[in-house]
Amino acid sequence: MNISEFDYELPENLIAQMPADKRQNSKMLVLDRATHTIEHKHFYNITDYLDDNTILVLNNTKVMPARIYGTKDTGAKIEVFLLEKDTKLENGDYWTCLIRPSKKIKPDTEITVSEDLKIRAIKRLEDDGEWLVELIHSGDIFDILHKVGNIPLPPYIERKLNKEELKDFDKERYQTVYAKDEGSVAAPTAGLHFTQEILQELQNKGVEIAYVTLNVGLGTFRPVKCENILDHKMHSETFEITQETADKINTAKANEKKLVAVGTTTVRTLETAFQKYGKIQACKDHSELFIYPPYEFKVIDNLITNFHLPKSTLLMLVSALAGKDFIFEAYKEAIKEEYRFFSYGDCMLIK
Length: 351
Fold this sequence. Notes:
By secondary structure, the protein is of the alpha/beta class.
């Protein structure tokens, strides 16, 4: 299967630079696979599509302020983008990261961020310019990151507005309202449309709600570079399913309830768990699952998701669920109706 089959042209003005004025006001394209029809709605209409025969599963990961700036002893400014804590190494706080400009860094280079934080480069890794570094700090690292770090917005969000003025805005809007477990470098963006009021309204209708945690890594959004998509290797991302969530999902599936996943990260968490264990069970594990047509889904029934980049693994995943032709028909319709694309953009419900 060639990567060109998952390409499309998107007018630049449809790449959302800011979220909707209110989370629930995003547009929502509803794809009905049974009738092959498309409806135009808003996200606040989601309560019309879910009922007491539904279990809604969301990813409660929280984006950490992973982009930090410091200086070398020469005064050169360095950007460090933390990716993931290395839990295999002891006697230190080790992370994989991206460093820019990387050519100015050598092993043992020290980068000063603040009085509380220095970063020592350990070694360059083979994987796409990544580095292993040690964080040298006094106090809780996440408390420090919240003081000195920045929310790492995707590179296609290019604003001419004052970035400092939007710093606090993004810290709130580039998180889901139910974000809990810090560890992601990007938001599970399908969840950005939910409000506490909508979640409560769904619960009042009898919709069961459960949470998983998958820490979103940079690999999720990296483009597929090989011509044959079967040659692509997914980056590993850690996830956790609690016993409470496993029990809720297994009971719901036994009672033939529809499982509606919020976001592709939730999909990969659940499908990976089933693939590894033959059922949904409490676990801490990692996912390298690459979902593309004609994958047969074992756990999820419906999906709430944003619009994805051309040639991305996320576009391939939704194509596996709804059929590539139907997805591209929907994307064409969304472009025609000037839906807003990508992280801060609008969404679709695939039912």
